[in-house]
Amino acid sequence: MKKIAIIGGGKMGTALAAKLKKEFSIQIVGRDSKMKPCDIVILAIKPQDFESLELNLQNELLISIMAGVNLKKLAEKTCAKKIVRSMPNLPLRVGAGFTGWISKNVKEKKLVKDIFSMFGEEIELKNEDAINAITALSGSGPAYFFYLCELMTEQACHFGFSKKDAEKIASNTLLGAAELVRNKTESFADLRASVSSKKGTTEAALNYFIRSNFAKLFKDGINRAKARSEKLNK
Length: 234
Ligand SMILES: NC(=O)c1ccc[n+]([C@@H]2O[C@H](COP(=O)([O-])OP(=O)(O)OC[C@H]3O[C@@H](n4cnc5c(N)ncnc54)[C@H](OP(=O)(O)O)[C@@H]3O)[C@@H](O)[C@H]2O)c1
Description:
This protein folds into 2 domains: 3-127, 3-Layer(aba) Sandwich (Rossmann fold), CATH 3.40.50; 141-233, ProC C-terminal domain-like (ProC C-terminal domain-like fold), CATH 1.10.3730. It starts with a strand and ends with a helix. The chain is 50% helix and 16% strand. By secondary structure, it is of the alpha/beta class. The protein binds NADP nicotinamide-adenine-dinucleotide phosphate. NADP nicotinamide-adenine-dinucleotide phosphate binds next to helix 1 and helix 2. NADP nicotinamide-adenine-dinucleotide phosphate (NAP) is lined by residues 7-13, 29-31, 44-47, 49, 53, 65-67, 87-90, 139.
């Protein structure tokens, strides 16, 4: 059984450990504990803590999930030869994560894919720039969805529903729609059209969103997340 050391036992580190312990021998390395010999090291600390981390890797495969730390910095700081830089997202906690990754000198790509598949779906990215895009899309994406949940809840409260009912309405509506997306045989636009009849209620809302240029606002927001990721990488 391969041995994995997870450095950083916070939100992501513990979520990773919960899934990985089914197939690997896992140790979580905290601030004051010493890492035991292992095959794979997963870096799950905050980028600001990485600066003061002392790590001298030899043949271990290094997998980083840290935002904003590029392959060059990872190699310089840890001496690792085989490196995977990845961007997972929070739904990995429930096995519905999405991870984009890129590697350097890694032959064990099947092992890497198998590891990320334990948390949901994964894609290997073509170049390191794509990490910035994936950070803005799938890394931050769950927060965009949670924001929509909050707004729908607020509006339901405004219509007179209790907070509890308002949350029930928002979460079930969005989860129901997400289920349709999961099983979809049509395009997103066709799904949207199937809820919007001519001159109907949904069309009234959607036409307002379109006229108000919601699309530009939303895409501009994603662009800002990408620009922030690029800046952090410098
Ligand atoms: N949260 C997300 O949705 C998400 C998504 C994708 C990627 N990430 C990345 O995942 C990483 C971890 O995020 P998180 O949300 O799990 O952060 P977190 O909850 O703050 O966890 C970080 C953990 O690392 C520990 N730590 C700090 N320095 C250490 C050291 N030198 N040795 C061992 N452990 C150390 C911290 O201990 P203390 O409590 O003592 O400080 C803390 O338990 C970040 O780099 C982030 O960019 C997060």
